[in-house]
Design a protein that fits this description.
Layout: H1 2-7, H2 9-37
Length: 38
């Protein structure tokens, strides 16, 4: 992982950003679904 991050720092940051975006979207979707059930 470390060697890959050293070779492709941009890709690593993109992966972190993408993971954060997915987690944020999942959280919003979960809240929206809970709102519909309420």
């Amino acid at each position: 992982m470390t060697n890959w991050d050293l070779l492709m720092p941009g890709m690593g940051l993109t992966g972190v950003g993408l993971a954060g975006l997915i987690l944020s979207y999942a959280g919003i979707a979960h809240t929206f679904i809970d709102g519909m059930h309420a």
